[in-house]
Write a structure and sequence with these properties.
By secondary structure, the protein is mainly alpha-helical. It is built from 5 helices and no strands. The mean pLDDT is about 85.
Length: about 120
Amino acid sequence: MWQRLKRWAKALRNDVMTLWFAGRHPDTPLAAKLLALGLAAYALSPIDLIPDFIPVLGYLDEIVLLPIGIYFCLKMIPARVLAECRARTEQWFEEKRGKPRSWMGAAVIGAIWVVGMWGVWVLVR
């Protein structure tokens, strides 16, 4: 079971990088490009929308929501573009570049948190 979980995590990591490349590919349709960039930014962001220390909900986005979004986004990308992006992903990890960080994704999530806290403050006040 542990090996299966490791394979799933590696596949998820590779899919996120594939979306990162697909979001920048000129032949990716606009809707798929926007979704790919959004998912990749969220997955690569050092900040989570739902912090992991919150029981159950903290891991819900990584275990359920993110894989579902990735699945549907990969279906929206043309096969030729997807093959090119998967090849670039393999090359990226062969060169041991590591996982990039999305500071734009972190900024967006930080902004969501600030707006959410402001909304709670307005309601409670």
